Every structure is written in structure tokens, then in C-alpha cells.
Amino acid sequence: MVSRFLSKLVEETAILLLEQLGQTKALFKEQYGDYPSLQRIERIVTQQCHRAT
């Protein structure tokens, strides 16, 4: 039962991260400018979230 709860929690968190990733990146770019490393971070977060779901 606990593992099912944790699996669902991880999946929900990953989905929320993916939904907010674009907006968060845009806000960061607006405040701090364009950093090439953002592309790498976005790719890593996306990959990890897809693995979790």
C-alpha cells in the first residue's frame, strides 16, 4: 500500500514538474537572461520525469 502511494506521488510530482518546466524556464530567462546551460537542465529534468512516469 505504501509503495502504491509513493508511486502515485512520484508520478504526480513528475507530471507537475513537466507542466511547469516551460513557464519556470521563461521566468528564469526573463530575470537572469539566456543561459545555454538551461537547455541541458531542461533536457535532464524532462528525461528524469519521463522515467518516473
Characterization of the model:
- By secondary structure, the protein is mainly α.
- It has one domain (2-10, 24-52).
- Helix 1 runs antiparallel to helix 2.
- Helix content is 89%, strand content 0%.
- It has helices spanning 2-32, 37-52.
Work out the helix count: 2
Mean pLDDT across the residues is: 90
Strand content: under 5%
Main beta-sheet annotation: none
* Gyration radius from CA atoms, angstroms: 14 Å
Shape: elongated
Distance between the termini: 18 Å
Keywords:
single chain; 53 residues; mainly alpha; 2 helices; 0% strand
Brief write-up:
The chain is built from 2 helices and no strands. The protein is mainly α.
Helices, strands, pairings?
Blueprint: H1 2-32, H2 37-52
Helix pairs in contact: 1-2
